[in-house]
Design a protein that fits this description.
disordered C terminus, AhpD-like, 7 helices, mainly alpha
């Protein structure tokens, strides 16, 4: 597989999911680890997110659940909560997904996830708009 194709495919997928938030993550790595930014585009977004087996909504649900369960990735969780909203996950679904993680990851992880969701929801211009922040 051509490396540039992986990068271009990954960049397009990142923009589809995260819009400007994804670009801000890449920009934040430019002065310290530009190669890592490329890896971040090529593997997760160019290879995994671009596979045909799951739609983007399902992928973002899985990512929100995983990041909530980790309990130590608040900034990434916020980006993916916004990404989930961008691809059609509702606020109600996000709250339920995060609450479900209390069963498997504990109440502290779920509480931290809910705090992240609350922060993202507060930044939304339109309460239940699906694509309000895509670029």
């Amino acid at each position: 597989m051509n490396i540039e194709n992986r990068y271009e495919r990954g960049l397009a997928k990142l923009r589809e999911i995260d819009g400007a938030a994804g670009q801000r993550v890449l920009d934040s790595l430019e002065d310290i680890a530009p190669d890592f930014a490329r890896y971040l585009i090529e593997f997760p977004f160019g290879d995994v997110y671009s596979r045909p087996g799951l739609d983007l909504k399902s992928r973002e649900i899985a990512v929100v659940a995983a990041l909530t369960a980790l309990g130590n990735a608040a900034s990434q969780l916020k980006v993916h909560i916004q990404g989930a909203l961008n691809v059609g996950v509702s606020r109600t679904e996000l709250v339920e997904i995060i609450m479900q993680m209390a069963v498997y990851a504990g109440f502290p992880a779920a509480l931290n996830g809910l705090a992240a969701a609350k922060e993202v929801f507060a930044q939304e211009r339109e309460p239940d708009s699906v694509l309000s922040h895509t670029a």
